[in-house]
Structure of Protein TEX261:
Amino acid sequence: MLLHILSWVATFIIILAATFSLAVALYFLAELVEENSVTASKVIRWMIIIDAALFLLLPIFESFPITLVISGLVAQLCHYMLMRTFPAIQIKSPWFAGTIILFLVNHYLAFRHFTEHYYAFNEAFAFFFLFMWLVPMALLVSLSANDMVLPTYSDSASSLGRSSENSFMNNQRRKQGSSLKTFLTYVKEEYLPIIGLGAKKAF
């Protein structure tokens, strides 16, 4: 009885540790993308191209349904079109809406396929990680680059005398701070002060 209770306690601690580790990793990646936005753009583009090529191989080597393959290819097309304005990803664009819709559709088609055909756990996990989660997660992390790059765009625009309105809109976007890094920074400062991660200065 005691070991059974302790097993649940240990499981809960492991889940908390895994969640904390994931948050730290995402924060580190967000910092990395901010400092190397050009390199991040090239890496994500190649990830999209490789994913699209692997999708074409699935019906040949693994007998995946053609509907899942086509849906996956269209999703990669949406990802690639989003990269045209990288790192300023247009959340209100139809390509972003298509990315969200196809993310849900692809998961439905994939779950249906894996329930009808047996695959080992590591094979199923590899499919979901490489084909379903990798590129969307990279795009999510790259949203933090907006906080640094958009003001640069506004500075260059003002120096060339193009438009003060664009500068104002970019400053407003920066103030909103809707990126993943901003959210993680808020969590760090508000909920993790006891370990020194969120210490605030007193004024």
